[in-house]
Amino acid sequence: MELLGYRRPDGKVGIRNHVLLLSVVVCANEVTDRIYRAVAGTVPVTHPHGCCQLGVDFEQSKRTLLGFAANPNVAGVLVVGLGCEKMEAPMLAKEIAQTGKPLQLLIIQDAGGTSKAVRQGIAMAEAMVAESQKLPRVPIKMSDLILGLECGGSDSTSGLAANPAVGVASDLLIQAGGAVVLSETTEIIGAEHLLAERCLNHRVSQDLLAIVKAAEGEAVKMGVDLRGTQPTPGNVAGGLTTIEEKSLGCLRKAGSGVVQAVLPYAAAVEGRGLFVMDTPGQDVESITGMVAGGCQMVLFTTGRGTPVGCPIAPVIKITGNDHTYNLMEENMDINAGTVVQGTETIASVGQRIYRLMQEVANGRLTKAEVLRHYEFAITRIGPSI
Amino acid sequence: MLKVVVIDPQDNVATALEDIRSGEQIKLDLAGKVTLLPVTQDIPIGHKVAVAFISCGDQVIKYGQPIGTATQSVQPGQHVHVHNLISNRGRGDV
Fold first, then answer.
1. Sheet strands side by side (includes A259-263)
2. Does the structure's ipTM exceed the value 0.90?
3. For B65-93, how does the pLDDT look when each residue is reduced to its tens digit (9 = 90+)?
4. Please, are residues A179 and A255 in contact by the beta-carbon 8 Å criterion?
5. Which of A330, A339, A373, B28 is buried most deeply by CB count within 10 Å?
6. Would the CB atoms of B15 and A239 count as touching at under 8 Å?
7. Fold type of domain B4-86
8. First to last CA, chain A
9. Do B80 and A241 touch (CB under 8 A)?
10. Taking a C-beta distance cutoff of 8 angstroms, is the pair A199, A205 a contact?
């Protein structure tokens, strides 16, 4: 299948051509949102952060916003700031300019308030979308892809059907020369010994064991049983009893690849093959971290059913639960419940997923895109000061 | 179609692929050897049923790996879930 995508000035390959409206601070969210509602071809990133943040917490939020701007699915960026925030919009714009992408800066305090900022922003966004539409689509390859792996609202079918099928698709992409990112450190607890055996070398194994130990330590520090939240009440209702059981099922998403490196949250993915990113079990924060790291596409397995997407990367939903597929078909792209029913093999579903990945890379919209699910959330390290 | 799946030959639990009523006999495929197991409690779809005797304090095995510790003895055919299985990990409470 011939695939067409977009080549960015820095040489990276995108499978979407969004104009990103990037709010740098909670105070700029409303203006950003009003511009988005007025101009087709734009996507909004809004969040409750960007001010009164310090040290590594500030750096992580900044890295996440810059990562979204740099993601090759983004054609150009309109940075929207208030004017007095810690996450200074001109500073971010200067760093984003290094990608060579079209860039505009809108400061609400300079524009003269909400209405004037919205009017200016609409004019800027309109011009950027018009410009982005002139970009030609060029041939791309599956090896250009960095794929994020996510699971959420898991039940027993996730480990039996959806996750192993995603594992087949992950292996196919790695064989084709692409990159795959496994995330959600909490959901490696109890399965880390198996993944540690599949690391490139001793140092990568040690890095993996260290992030799992740290994630478990955070839970233990709270003085309660992790089961208060992991598995979640929905996981438990779906038959999952312990975090170990959930993790052993989750790990199947990663197929059989060798872990090349363990990456911090929202760090850029460099190289090909399988990577692990240190993200929490919270789905939206985890997807946000991986897409900030450069993932152009996400495979998301769910047993109970979840609608969430991402502003700039297509998210493909796969459920191993036939009941959930029928109940929430408007949110589900692939039914892997056929594995549980014994009418299809895991390998066959994996190949179906891979074919859909090719179509989505070529422009086909996922259910989450059709419904404009643009969830975005940054993992915080420290409190607002 | 079998009503349960045993994922790994070492497992002492099976996962229900449909709702199973107490009193039903279910077929088990243990590494190619098919046996019959009488189920003595209702097992909702997706939940676990013991396929071997599990002593209090024993590890419950699924995917061929320990998934936690049994807090009471469990007879084959009984439901295994949060009432009789605790996690070994992330235990800030102990």
1. A259-263, A273-277, A179-182, A146-151, A297-301, A315-319, A334-335
2. yes
3. 999 999 999 999 999 999 999 999 999 88
4. no
5. A339
6. yes
7. 2.30.130
8. 52
9. yes
10. yes
Query: How is chain A split into domains, by residue range?
Result: 3-138, 142-370
- pLDDT tens sequence across A321-354: 999 999 999 999 999 999 999 999 999 999 999 9
Residue A168 has what pLDDT? 98
Secondary-structure class of domain A3-138 per CATH: alpha beta
Nearest CA in chain B to A154: B46
- Non-local (6+) Cβ contacts of A78 within 8 A are A19, A20, A21, A22, A35, A42, A103, A104, A105, A106, A121, A124, A125, A128
- Among candidates A226, A245, A303 on the partner chain, residue whose Cβ is nearest the Cβ of B90: A226
DSSP string, A266-300: TPPP-SSEEEEE---S-HHHHHHHHHHTT-SEEEE
CA–CA distance from A201 to each of A92, A181, A196 (Å)?
36, 18, 9
Rounded Cα distance between A374 and B12, Å, is 43
Which tokens in the block code for residue A304? 């109970």
Task: Classify residue A83 as exposed, middle or buried by CB count within 10 Å of its CB (0-12, 13-18, 19+).
Answer: middle
Contact A64, A376 (CB under 8 A): no
Q: What does R_g of chain B's alpha carbons equal in angstroms? A: 13
Query: DSSP state, A364?
Result: P
B16-66, pLDDT tens digit by residue? 999 999 999 999 988 788 899 999 999 999 999 999 999 999 999 999 999
Q: How far apart are CA A124 and CA A131, in angstroms?
A: 11
DSSP-derived secondary structure for A99-112: TT--EEEEEHHHHT
**Token pair for residue B61?**
């095995």
CB A360 within 8 A of CB A3: no
Nearest to B67 among A157, A221, A242 (CB): A242
Amino acid in the structure at residue A167: G
* CB-CB neighbors (< 8 A) of A248 in chain B: 62-63, 65, 67
